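Lab notebook, bench 4. The sequencing result for the construct came back, and we need a structural model before the next group meeting so we can plan mutations. Quick request posted to the team channel:

Model the 3D structure of this chain.
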Amino acid sequence: MARRTHKKSRNGCLQCKRRHVKCDETTPRCVNCTTADIQCQYLSHKAKRPSPPEVISVVSGADETVPPSGLAVGTPKSDDRDTYRSSNASPGLASDRMGLCFDIHDMELLHHWSTATYATLTPELDQQEMWQTTVIRVGMNHPFLLFEILGIAALHLAVSRPDQKKLYYARATELQNNALTGFNNDVTQVDESNCTAILLYSSLLGVHILANRSETANLGLSEYLDHLLRYIEMTRGVRNLVIADWWRFLQGSEIQPLTRLSVKDAKRPYNIPRECQQLSDLIQESDLSHSSIQAYNQAIDRLFWVYDVADVPASTHDNIRWVISWPVQLSAEYMMLLNQRRPEALIILAYYGVVLHSYRKSWAIGDCGAHLVNAVNAQVGSYWQRWLSWPMQIVGNS
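Done. Here's the predicted structure in token form:
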């Protein structure tokens, strides 16, 4: 498939340039490097970055903004924005306390979230209630979360109303860009006042990256693999920002239902398909350093836990309950090996593709799992194909 063109970040950091993602050019550390927990370096002649754009008022019209992160889904085409403005021009509803404006069509998105989208995230009733009401209440005090909630609702409507998907995808992009800008400007440190909002926002942002079909429609297999790795890096950033230091606090907070079950409570051995055992055999048979073996074994253990709690691959799901539970637990060592495209790391990733494939009935996931498994299969050499026979069989037979 033809590769799409995009605006390049001329003054981006060296790490973003090397990884071929758009840099938001924040100094001294851009959002991508902060999220991935890696060093951020700029060329010495880098020009000073202008002040971030103000948050868009959708009442006055959505002007083009530069997303603060290369993980944003891209800026909608000008004709998409013009179409959205002309079709959605209406008097706005404003909140003076937040200094933000939302129009009647954003209220449509909020209504859709609270009547439909929330129920697609989990089958558990107490968690559904939390996503329906608590998350909106938290978002009222943290606009970056509210923007992301509306963005997810727009993506859901793009799937539910395919005849209007172009409009909803454009609006979802603008909302995500606003959310990223707000997050970058507002969150200077993590504390009790914002850790709940950060966890919720980061989780939804990972879902946004997976669910935005407008960003992946024309990607080749190699580019799709890059896309999934960015999703994993972003999702793993949740642990760096919140989970490591604030998990005990979150367990007693208003989002407690999300923290009810963790890998620490798991009973081993896990109930997993016998074919999964070959992952452990792969690590034992490979010539690896001690640190790599530890990183791989931890990633496999966490993956097997997800297989167990989600009953993969025997069950298929129409929600996203356990989708991000594996990426959020990955170590920096494993991420380094994955970014280096080490075959062992990619093969483990393909088995996560089977997890995603078990959630293919979810509007947000769809064929992500099959694409991921095929992308890994195309990346590794023929020597490694035998380790991928089972994941390929699972996605092929479905």
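The beta strands are 92-95, 100-103.
Will bring this to the meeting.
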